[in-house]
Amino acid sequence: MNTRFRYADLGILALVGLYTGAWAYCSPAGWYRNFPGFGLSWLPQLGPYNEHLAKDAGAMFLALSVLSLIALGQVRNNRLVQTAGAAWLVFNVLHFSYHVQHLDMYGTRDQVLNVVFLGALVLLAALLLVPILPARRGDAR
Fold it and tell me: How many domains does the chain fold into?
């Protein structure tokens, strides 16, 4: 694991959390109707709208983003980066597990996209658990 990969990994997770969290918290009904965006809509099939639940999900995503941004500022701190990775991993494994058990409500395209995107988030989180390699002498990383 190197620092460039950690920057990218934490940055992607922070952006996912900010995108989802800000949208869900600031416009819960819009998020419910239109998430993930880009002409797709994945939430109405899962049950009725609940503003409290949507705002709580948004707050959780924002909190994970804050943790990711703090870790991004200290990307060589194994304990901090691994803590951020563990927090994202717990959420993403449980989130992924739920969705793969409820794919029948989606068409093939949305089934594939759910598995690919949610699976990628599990992988990104898990990779943060890998400790950073010590810098070699003369290595400018």
Answer: 1
Residue 7 resides in a domain: yes
Domain range for residue 33?
3-127
Residue 41 has φ and ψ, to the nearest 5°, of -150, 115
**pLDDT per residue over 1-19, tens digit each?**
689 999 999 999 999 999 9
Residue 55 in domain: yes
Q: How many CB atoms lie within 10 A of CB 80?
A: 16
Question: pLDDT digits over 124-138, tens only?
Answer: 999 999 998 776 666
Residues 68, 85: Cα–Cα separation, whole Å: 8
The helix (run of H) or strand (run of E) holding residue 41 is strand 40-41
- Taking residues 76-98, what's their average pLDDT? 98
Q: Which residue has the tokens 């950690």?
A: 6
Q: C-alpha angle 85/56/45, rounded to 5°?
A: 95
Is residue 31 included in any domain, yes or no? yes
Rg of the chain in Å (alpha carbons): 17
